[in-house]
Design brief:
Elements: E1 7-14, E2 17-24, E3 37-40, H1 47-50, E4 53-57, E5 64-76, E6 82-95, E7 107-108, E8 119-121, E9 126-136, E10 142-144, H2 147-151, E11 161-162, E12 165-174, E13 180-189, E14 197-203
Antiparallel strand pairs: 1-2, 3-5, 4-5, 5-9, 6-7, 6-8, 6-12, 9-10, 10-11, 12-13, 13-14
Length: 204
């Protein structure tokens, strides 16, 4: 044993002789093996990850149109597995004159991988990409990245709509066991769908 925070060694005898083993306290203690989440948004460095423009099929038309997505990466740099992470967006400030904007109750967002609302993120170097807001070609609004608005057979939900203006929202990521991280963003919506943008203004 080196120290309470160091390496332990133990040995025992059986019919095959002595067996020795070494383990580190932080590999077995929940305090040391907890996840550590961080929200990352770097649209200038990696636009294909954080603000991609992709084709999608219109709901009542065979032709393709385009969407612009604003997304973040959620990293887990801790030693513990981040199980069933759920993300919620809550609008804090609304600087638009239009009444058709999301209300202040939290909205559950969809991860980009398997269209899930809960995501497992592996320890140490794991990360997953999360949909935040998106805009559509031929629309002057933006929409919260909920499951129903991203995948529904109808148009994006009215209650998920951001009209033209500036908004501040909080993003909170929480694991099954209560570990969390958060950040605040400023969202800019213009009548031009491809100009949709956001900036991180405060990180947890």
């Amino acid at each position: 044993m080196n120290s309470v925070f160091g390496t332990y060694s133990c040995s025992c005898n059986n019919s095959f002789g002595q067996i020795g083993s070494t383990f580190r306290l932080w590999d077995t203690c929940p305090f040391f093996s907890k996840p550590k989440l961080r929200i990352v948004y770097e649209p200038d460095a990696e636009p294909k990850t954080y603000c991609p423009i992709k084709d999608f099929e219109y709901r009542y038309d065979i032709r393709l149109a385009k969407r612009k997505y604003l997304r973040v990466a959620v990293e887990n740099t801790g030693r513990g597995y981040a199980e069933k992470c759920m993300a919620k967006l809550r609008v804090l400030e609304n600087n638009s004159d239009d009444n058709e904007n999301p209300e202040t109750e939290p909205k559950i967002l969809q991860w980009s991988t398997e269209k899930n609302i809960k995501e497992d993120i592996s320890a140490r170097t794991g990360f997953s990409v999360l949909n935040i807001v998106f805009s559509e070609q031929e629309s002057k609004s933006a929409f919260v990245g909920t499951q129903m608005s991203l995948n529904g057979k109808e148009f994006p939900r009215k209650e998920d709509t951001f009209s033209t203006g500036n908004f501040v929202f909080e993003l909170v990521i929480t694991t099954l066991h209560g570990y969390s991280t958060s950040a605040k963003f400023r969202l800019n919506v213009t009548p031009e769908w491809h100009e949709l943008s956001m900036q991180m203004i405060k990180e947890d």
